[in-house]
Amino acid sequence: MTVMNTKLSRRNLSDEVTLWLQNAIAAGTYKPGDRLPSVETLAMDLNVGRSSVREALRTLQAKGMLEIYHGKGCFVAAPKIHLGSVLKSFSENIRQRGMAPGSRILKLEVAQPDEKIRQHLKLEKGEKVNFLHRLRLADNEPLAIEISCTPHRLLPDLLDLPWDEHTSLYQVLREKYRLYPAYAKQSITAILLSEYQSSLLGVGARTPGLSIVQIAFSEGDVPIEYAQDIYRGDRYQYDIVLLAP
Fold first, then answer.
1. CA nearest to 227, candidates 162, 156, 170, 178
2. How far apart are CA 201 and CA 144, in angstroms?
3. Coil, helix or strand for 193?
4. Pairing mode, if any, of strands 236-238 and 81-83?
5. Listed residue (78, 74, 3) closest to 39, CA to CA
6. Which pLDDT score, from 0 to 100, does residue 221 have?
7. Confidence grade of residue 1 (pLDDT, cut at 50, 70, 90)
């Protein structure tokens, strides 16, 4: 797709090209995954120099709006999903962004936890957990791998429920068990996805990702879930507000 001889002001050409491209992406002229016209074509159609176009493309790449592959071209990036400091389920987070959440269940079982999980959930020796392993989707696109462990003592029939692609764990906790997640502690690590993780998420091997370990607590400081989620680094951004002491 090319543009139709749009003349830009001479004020700051690279800024003008940046703004024009942002507006074109916002208007849907160029959609996620679309390849932009070449630098030469954009420069000719916008009546600017190629250096102004290149600078604008680099600016939008730095903002995460474009992906540039040498030898292939410049492509519109899928918008990032923002994670923040409000405790929400995956389903709630995805719905708020206008997408349909879903999941593919990889494993459901009652299992013996390792020592680390046992301590985080404050379990007695011999106590078991409900082990839930899912691939999480948004509009049928794989975005995250979820491993969730909940105390079997608190939720003895959790895995007997009719789990399907639309089931939200936090909704089940609230509606069936009257357990309301009040707060959570998180540990965030930048990782390179393994071959197994990459294959599940549909990305190349050793693609950057985020590993988020979370322990969720109900009122009274009772730990109700230990989870490790692996997120695609190209689709997620973590936002944190820092307060001065």
1. 170
2. 7
3. coil
4. parallel
5. 74
6. 94
7. very low
CB crowding 75-105: b at 16 or more within 10 Å, else e: bbbbebbebeeeeebbbebbeeeebebbbee
Q: How far apart are CA 231 and CA 51, in angstroms?
A: 35
Give φ, ψ of 177 to 5 degrees. Answer: -105, -5
Q: Checking DSSP bridges between strand 81-83 and strand 101-111, what pairing results, if any?
A: unpaired
**Phi, psi (5° rounding) for residue 154?**
-80, -30
Residue 71 token pair:
């030898």
Q: Which two tokens stand for residue 79?
A: 């918008």
Report the first-to-last Cα separation within the chain, whole angstroms: 52
pTM of the model: 0.72
pLDDT digits (tens, 9 = 90+) for 52-87: 999 999 998 888 888 888 888 899 887 777 666 677
Which residues contact residue 242 at a Cβ distance below 8 angstroms, ignoring those fewer than 6 apart?
A: none
| Cα 187–Cα 176–Cα 103 angle in degrees, nearest 5 | 55
Nearest to 135 by CA among 145, 125, 127: 145
Angle at 25 between CA 23 and CA 29, to 5 degrees: 100
Please report the domains of the chain, with CATH numbers, ordered by start residue: 13-76 (1.10.10.10), 81-238 (3.40.1410.10)
Listed residue (215, 207, 211) closest to 229, CA to CA: 211
CA dihedral for 51, 53, 58, 63, sign (positive or negative) = positive
What is the spatial distance between Cα 78 and Cα 152, in angstroms, rounded to a whole number? 39
